[in-house]
Every structure is written in structure tokens, then in C-alpha cells.
Design a protein that fits this description.
binds 1-hydroxy-2-naphthoyl-CoA; alpha/beta; globular
Length: 271
């Protein structure tokens, strides 16, 4: 779907506002916004566009309607080895989307009304912040429907809610209301359903007023603490990005292009 255009989106609604907020809405309300491979491909396309667009500062991920954020993988297209799309190939491509959301150097906010369960629960967990409506319901269903996410779905969850609670959530596969989710540290705030959009905007606008580079490097640092070598690579990439913008960094490039020795003597060594 690399050639996908906005006009071809069927499972997702993609909007961008003047003020710098991109809103990505999973639009399969009849299925409680369950995702099929195409849904994930479309989401990935939207996140990629929002990443590349310099006018976008914050991204909101949500689900259509008030009944669900996302109910996970569409069980009606689950085949052997994954979820089967129009091309007949079984995929677990939501795993790539999780990585994409974490790697995206802008804050991603999950706006959750109704069910965030199964793979849908993991999507909200990998977002940077979660704003929940008071009708939101959270949980993993995997062990009941013959599935599990032994990646971020388990390990990142344990970082959010602690080991005991993570094992409870997965082993018992219970559902939790918004208040319980807040107490567990799964979400940032709970608001009445009719204030969900407004409150999400308030949080987004507050972040938009802050230094984009500060937020970018902080996200990378918080990821790095969990992501091992891949996390260090992400954090390190930010250092390179900043160094390329400096005079010292540019001196090296300039010297190479001018076929002369670089002169780094004028750059102070800070303590
Ligand atoms: O674990 C993974 C992965 C792990 C590793 C790598 C990749 C992974 C990818 C995905 C997943 C998973 O997501 S596994 C977990 C899959 N999800 C579920 O087990 C949730 C199934 N749904 C429900 O438990 C309930 O529908 C609900 C709690 C979300 C809502 O209940 P409610 O309000 O009573 O509505 P309900 O009548 O059940 O659903 C409305 C319609 O939506 C139904 O269709 P209808 O009878 O009207 O034709 C229902 O079948 C459909 N629907 C809801 N969720 C799904 C779904 N259809 C397919 N797949 C769904 N996930």
C-alpha cells in the first residue's frame, strides 16, 4: 500500500488541522473498530504522512463512534499464521504498527471511548498518552480467544502497571473500567464522554506550545530505557540530527567537500 493515497482510505479517516494536530480514526464501528490487514496498512500510511509533515506536531489515534476505540484483530479474517487480507497473505502487521508509533518522533495520543481490548488495548498502550472517556473499558482477551502478544503487549504493559497487575490482566483476561485503568497507571486521565474530544485537544495544544525537540528527545529517551540497542539507536539518531545542525558538525562536511583538513580547534570542549 506504499502507493496508497488519502482518497483510497476505506478503514481509516485521516484529518489534519491548521494548528498541527493529525487525527487518525479507525473507522469500522460495526466491528467495534477491529482491524484487518488493510486497516493496519492504512493506519501505517497515515502515521507515516503525519511523521513526514512538518506542520504536524501531535497525532491523535481514536476509533469511530462511542462504543469502541479498537477491539483488536478482526477474528473473522484470522487464518493460520495471522490475519488474512485481500492478497490472501496471513499477517501480524499490527506489530510493525506498534513499532512505528513508538518510533514516531512526535507525541501520539490515544483518545479512548468504549472498548480498547485485545490488540486494540495494546495500540493504546504504545501511544504516548491515553485520554479515556468514562465509558472506556480496557483489557486483554487473547487467552480467551486463542491469542497473545508476548512483545510490547506484555513487556510494555508490565512497565506501565507493574508485574503483578500485568500478569493478572493477561492470565485472567478480565476487563477494567476507566477508573480502574487510571488507578493502575494505564491511562493519563478520565473525563466524561461528552468532553473527550475537548479534553484531548487541551492536552494536544499544551504539547504543541512546548519545544518539539525537547519532546522528541524525551520520547526517544523514555523508549531507549526499554528498547535496548534499538532504543539507543533512536536516541542516538537525535544526537546526530542535532549535531548536523551545529557549526561543528558542518565543519566536517564542509572540509570534506572543499578537500581540506577539518579545523575543529574553534569548538570548545564543554565540561
Ligand atoms: O492478540 C493479537 C495479536 C497478537 C500478536 C500479534 C498480532 C496480534 C493481532 C491481534 C491480536 C488480537 O487482537 S487478539 C484479540 C481479538 N479481539 C477480541 O477478542 C475482542 C472480541 N470482541 C469482543 O470481545 C466484544 O465484541 C467487545 C467486548 C469488543 C464488544 O462487545 P459488545 O459491545 O457486546 O459488542 P459485540 O456484539 O460483541 O460486537 C459487535 C459486533 O462487532 C459483532 O458483530 P455482529 O454480531 O454485529 O455481526 C462482533 O462480532 C463484532 N466484533 C467485535 N469485535 C470483533 C468483532 N468482529 C471481529 N473481530 C473482533 N475483534
Amino acid at each position: 500500500v506504499s502507493s496508497l493515497g488519502k482518497e483510497e482510505l476505506t478503514d481509516v479517516i485521516y484529518e489534519k488541522s491548521e494548528e498541527g494536530i493529525a487525527k487518525i480514526t479507525i473507522n469500522r464501528p460495526d466491528k467495534r473498530n477491529a482491524f484487518r490487514p488493510r486497516t493496519i496498512q492504512e493506519l501505517s500510511w497515515c502515521f507515516s504522512d503525519a511523521r513526514d509533515d512538518p506542520r504536524v506536531g501531535v497525532i491523535v489515534l481514536t476509533g469511530a463512534g462511542e462504543l469502541a476505540f479498537c477491539s483488536g484483530g478482526d477474528q473473522s479474517v484470522r487464518g493460520k499464521g495471522g490475519y488474512v487480507g485481500e492478497d490472501g497473505i496471513a499477517r501480524l502487521n499490527v506489530l510493525d504498527l506498534q513499532v512505528q508509533i513508538r518510533r514516531l518522533p512526535k507525541p501520539v495520543v490515544a483518545q479512548v471511548a468504549g472498548y480498547a481490548v485485545g490488540g486494540g488495548h495494546i495500540l493504546h498502550m504504545v501511544c504516548d498518552l491515553t485520554i479515556a472517556a468514562d465509558n472506556a473499558i480496557f483489557g486483554q482477551t487473547g487467552p480467551k480467544v486463542g491469542s497473545f502478544d508476548a512483545g510490547y503487549g506484555s513487556t510494555h504493559m508490565a512497565r506501565l502497571v507493574g508485574q503483578k497487575k500485568a500478569r493478572e490482566m493477561w492470565f485472567l483476561a478480565r476487563l477494567y473500567d476507566a477508573r480502574e485503568a487510571l488507578d493502575m497507571g494505564l491511562v493519563n486521565t478520565v473525563v466524561p464522554l461528552d468532553q473527550l474530544e475537548t479534553e484531548t485537544l487541551v492536552w494536544c495544544r499544551e504539547m504543541l506550545r512546548n519545544s518539539p525537540t525537547a519532546l522528541r528527545v524525551l520520547k526517544a529517551a523514555l523508549n531507549a530505557a526499554e528498547d535496548g540497542q534499538a532504543g539507543i539507536q533512536e536516541l542516538g539518531g537525535n544526537a546526530t540530527m542535532l549535531f548536523y545542525q551545529s557549526e561543528e558538525g558542518n565543519e566536517g562536511r564542509q572540509a570534506y567537500m572543499e578537500k581540506r583538513a577539518p579545523d575543529f580547534t574553534k569548538f570548545k570542549r564543554l565540561p
